[in-house]
């Protein structure tokens, strides 16, 4: 019997501390849910802004004209009209590595844009959920949780 790995909280963001293979299996299982599209972003290749933009552009199939800057990223993320599914779940592995070669403020901007997109999707009666993965149990992951908690609760 196959174990159902598609379990999420009601929160905008979920963080799973587990082997990356288990996290990837969550993503695979998610795509079996009717009216749900899962997209996988490899955090290990997102250590810079350009790496993040390139990975997300490919995973979410952003239009060719989407620029490599926060404004364009936000605009494309809030649009996504080419997705026909009712639910979109974005999986980001190794969140502790995302934007690690950039100033800390860049990560906060990234999370803020994700939070704004979640709110935009909610207004369109579509679910956007962000599922994060880590194997990090250091203070860094606690800091990431604090950033998410601080931004996710703001309107």
What does this structure look like?
- The chain contains five helices and four strands.
- Helix content is 43%, strand content 17%.
- The chain has a four-stranded parallel beta sheet with strand order 1-4-3-2, sandwiched between helices.
- The termini are far apart.
- Helix 3 (70-79) runs parallel beside helix 4 and helix 4 (104-123) runs parallel beside helix 5.
- With 155 residues, it is α/β, with parallel strands linked by helices.
- The radius of gyration is 15 Å and the shape is globular.
- Strand 3 (87-93), helix 4 (104-123) and strand 4 form a beta-alpha-beta unit.
Features:
single chain, 155 residues, alpha/beta, 4 strands, 43% helix, 17% strand, globular, disordered N terminus
Brief sketch in words of this structure:
This protein is of the alpha/beta class and 155 residues long. Helices cover 43% and strands 17% of the residues.
Task: Indicate the structural class.
Answer: alpha/beta
Main sheet characteristics: 4 strands, parallel
Assembly state: single chain
Q: What is the number of strand segments? A: 4
Question: Number of helix segments?
Answer: 5
Q: Give the SSE string.
A: EHEHHEHEH
What would the principal axes of the Cα set say about the shape? globular
Q: Assess the beta-strand content as a share of residues.
A: 15-25%
Mean pLDDT equals 85
- As laid out across the biggest beta sheet, the strand order is 1-4-3-2
Rg over alpha carbons: 15 Å
What share of the residues lie within helices? 40-55%
Distance between the termini: 42 Å
| Poorly predicted sequence stretches spanning 5 or more consecutive residues | 1-5
């Amino acid at each position: 019997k196959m174990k159902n790995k598609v379990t999420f909280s009601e929160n905008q963001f979920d963080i799973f501390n587990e082997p990356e293979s288990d996290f990837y299996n969550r993503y695979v299982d998610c795509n079996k849910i009717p009216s749900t599209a899962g997209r996988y972003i490899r955090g290990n290749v997102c250590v810079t802004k350009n790496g993040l933009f390139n990975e997300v552009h490919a995973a979410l199939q952003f239009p060719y004209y989407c620029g490599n800057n926060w404004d364009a990223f936000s605009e494309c993320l809030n649009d996504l009209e080419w997705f026909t599914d009712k639910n979109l779940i974005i999986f980001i592995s190794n969140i502790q590595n995302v934007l690690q070669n950039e100033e800390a403020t860049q990560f906060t901007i990234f999370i803020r844009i994700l939070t704004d997109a979640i709110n935009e999707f909610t207004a369109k009666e579509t679910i956007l959920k962000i599922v994060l993965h880590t194997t990090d149990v250091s203070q860094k992951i606690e800091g990431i949780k604090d950033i998410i908690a601080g931004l996710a609760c703001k309107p």
